[in-house]
Amino acid sequence: MLPRVDLLLLLPLLSAAVVAGHNPIKLVFVLAGQSNMAGRGGVSDGHWDHVVPPACRPSPSIHRLNASLMWQMAHEPLHADIDFKKTCGVGPGMPFAHSVVAASTEAVPLGLVPCAVGGTSIREWARGTSLYKNLVHRARVAAASAGGRVAAMLWYQGESDTVSEKDAEAYGHRMETLISHLRADLRDPNLLVIQNY
């Protein structure tokens, strides 16, 4: 279950989004991490039950950047064409997006950028890796269509780093490094990162 995020942190972004540009996507949120972010809700024995809870249902205000870098109305499973080696189900992306839309006083179309891949460790997300390069590329494409800015990255990862004590102890430093590199490579020193693990 996704912890409560104080949506007051996002209000300045919501206000700016209403007046910025004319593109349909006003706010961009990157979804990254491992299986909990990619979504395994409703998956059993490699099959998704196709049950979509109300908090995960499509909305005309919520879009996703698909694997072909095209915007489409967001629908579960959000990561099906990204984490394609595994069966995806529902995850935390849609409930988060619905919460942001509900917190806005005006219609604010937002875009989700699925990047999560199940079973990955934080080392696999380090600068220079294929996962990192893909995340940065997808975020840049999405931001360019939304006026040049990613509102936040939602990060849900960490289970793979609990297998060894060494990896668990190094996690904090690796996460700080990842955030620093993303802020530099996305040219946003204040990029908001919402972390769960």
TrEMBL record:
* Top-level division of the source organism's lineage: Eukaryota
Q: Does the keyword Nucleus apply?
A: no
Organism placement in taxonomy: Eukaryota, Viridiplantae, Streptophyta, Embryophyta, Tracheophyta
Q: Which organism is it from?
A: Vanilla planifolia (Vanilla)
For the Sialate O-acetylesterase domain, which residue ranges apply? 27-195
Q: Which residues cross the membrane?
A: none
Looking at the Swiss-Prot or TrEMBL record, what is one Pfam family this protein matches? SASA
For this chain, one GO molecular function annotation is: hydrolase activity
Keywords noted in UniProt: Hydrolase, Signal
Signal peptide boundaries: 1-21
By what name is this protein known?
A: Sialate O-acetylesterase domain-containing protein
Q: In the UniProt record, does the keyword Hydrolase occur? A: yes
